[in-house]
User: What shape does this take?
Amino acid sequence: IEESYEDIQNKRKQLPAYKCGNEILNIVRENQVVVIVGETGSGKTTQLPQILSKEYGKKIGITQPRRVAALSVATRVAQEMNVELGTLVGYTIRFEDKTTKDTRIKYMTDGILLRETLKDSMLYEYDCIIMDEAHERTLNTDVLLGFFKNLLAKRRDIKLIITSATMNASKFVQFFPNAPNYIIPGRTFPVTNIYTRFPVSDYLESAIQQCVKIHMSTPLNEDILIFMTGQEDVEMACGMLMEKLIAVYSSKYQEDPDKLQNEICIFPFYSTLPQDSQKQVFKPLNSTNKRKVIVSTNIAETSLTIDGIKHVIDCGYSKLKVYNPRIGLDSLQITPISQANAQQRSGRAGRTGPGTCYRLYTESTFLFEMYKETIPEIQRTNLSNVLLMLKSLGVQDVLSFPFIDPPPKVTLMTSLYELWSIGTLDNMGNLTKLGTQMAKFPLNPNLCKMLINSIALDCTEELLIIVSMLSIPNIFYRPKNAEAEADKERARFYVAGSDHITLLNVYSQWRANRYSSQWCKKHYIIYRSMQRANDIIGQLRSIMDSIVKGNMRKSRRYNSNKTNTILGIHDNNTFSSWKNVRKCIVSGYSYKNIGKRVGLNKYISLQNGMPLQLHPTSSLFGLGDLPPYVVYHELLLTTKEYITVVTAADPI
Ligand code: ADP
Ligand code: MG
Assistant: This one.
C-alpha cells in the first residue's frame, strides 16, 4: 500500500519537531547558533528545514554525515512538500548533484559543504546551515565546526543550527559559548535491556538464535531490528536467518510449508543497497499478521528511522574507519561500539511503545569495557586530506586551527610530513602546484596524484577509469548460492599482475558491450556500481579539463575525447602493454602502500616489515611467479592482514 499525500501530511503533523515549529523559529531568530537535541525519529532532519524555510529566503543547507541519509531524506521531504526531487528540494552528494539554482532546501554530505567553502569561503548562497547529526563527529563535521567558528563573526546574518540525537550536546555548547540548547520534547517508551550471561563467541550465530526465539514467542506485529556491522554480515545474517527459520518451520509446521512466507519478511539494510530495496524497508507491511525483520548496519542507529520496531538485537560492534599508526594507514575495522551507540540502538525499540533490546554482550562489558562515547574520527584517522583541505582553504597555521577536539600535535606533524613527502607541500609548508591541483579533486591524495601524473604519461583516459572504479564500492557481486560461478566470471577479467588494470578491463568490456545491464548480470557485476563509475568519470574528467586548460604545454598531450588507447576484449591484454598505465598507478602510492616479497610467495610492508597476505580475490593470488614489489590500494584487517587491489611494481 502506497502512502497517500494526506497520510504523509498527517504523519508529519504528529512529529514532535513539527509541533515545536514556532518555538524553534523564535529561538533561531534570537540566536546565531542554536543546538537542537531530539530523539531519533522526532523529525529533526525532515522538518527543521521546512520550518526554517518559512522565514529564511535564501538557501538552507543541511549536512549529513552519510550519503545515503542525504539522498533518502531529500526524497522524503520532496514527497512531503509535494514537489519533484531536484527542484525546490534537492541533494548533493559526492559525484551526484540533484539541485538547480532554484533549490532552496539542499541536503548534502558534510564533505560537500566543505568543498563549497573552497569556492566561496563566505557561503553567501546560504542564510541557514543545519549541521545534522553533529554528534557523529565525522572528520568533516569537525573541520566545518572549526570553519564556522571563524565564519560566524564575518557573517552576522548566517544562522547555524547544530542537531544531535544524543543528549550529549554540551560539547557544542562549550564550543559556541552563547548558543542555547533547545530540546525537542519527545515521548519515548522504556526499553528493557537484556544482556548475555557470558560473552558470545559468534555474534552472528547468537543474533540468529535470538531472533528465532523472539519470533516464536511474540505476536507477529512486533517488528525486529538487528544491528550488524557491515554489508557482508548483514547479507550473511539474512541468509542464515532464512535457513534457520526454514529448519524450524519444517519440523513445526510440516503440513503448511507456506506458513513461513506468510509470517515473516526479512530485509537487509545498508548504504549501498539499491534505492528501491531501501524504500521497501520503510513501507509498512500490508498485514498485521506479518513480522518485519530488518538486518541493518548502523545507518539505522540515528541516520534513518524505521518505525514500528519493538525488539532490537545489538551485536555490540560496528565498522569504523581506524587509523592504525603502526602501519600508518586507514582501514575499516570491526570495532566494539560505545555506550552511547548502545543506548541509541536500544532506543530504536521504544519509539511506539515499550520495547526490548537484546545486547549480545555482558553487562560488565557494557559498563567497564565500552568507551562512553565513540572517539571522534579526527582522533583516529590520517589527517592528510583534512590538512590539504585546510591549506587550500587558506589556513596557513593548521596547528592552531580551532578544532573542537584538537588532534595530537604529533599526528598533525606526521601528516604534514607525508604531504610534503609526496610533493604537495613545499619546504615552507605552503601548497605546491601539485597540492593545489590535488585539492580540487574529491579524492584521496594517492588517487589525485595518479590522475595528475597521467597527463604526462599520456594515459589520462585509462586512469580516469581506474580511479573512478576505485572510488565506488565493490563491483563484483557474489551471491550466496552461486559463489563458485561468480568467482569464475570474475577471474575472466583478470589482467595478470594488476588488479587496477583488471578493473579497467571490466570497464572497457562493459563499454564495448554498450553499457548493458544484461551484460553485468551475466558476469556478476553490479550494474548500479558501474553506472556510478560512469558518473564519476564524467565529473573527474571535467575537473581534469579545468586543470589542463591552465597548462598549455601539457594540454597537447591530453585529449579528453581520446578513446582508442583502451584495448578491447581481453585477448590482447598482456601486462606489458600497460606499461604507462602501470607506471602511473605505481606513482600514486607512497612508501606506505608498498609490499616487498620475501621468499617465494610472502610479502612484507616496506614501511615496517609487517607480514601482508594477498587477498584471495586478487588477480595475483596463486600466481607461481610473484613480483618482487607490489603496490596495494587497501589493507583489510581481519584475522590476517590482507592487501587488496594490488599491482606489480617491479622495475620495468
Ligand atoms: P530525526 O532526524 O529526528 O531522526 P527524521 O526527520 O529523519 O527524524 O524522521 C521523521 C519521520 O519521518 C520518521 O518517522 C521517519 O520514519 C520518517 N521518514 C524519514 N525518511 C523517510 C523515508 N525515506 N521514507 C519514509 N519515512 C521516512
Ligand atoms: Mg535525522
Remarks:
- The longest strand covers residues 629-637.
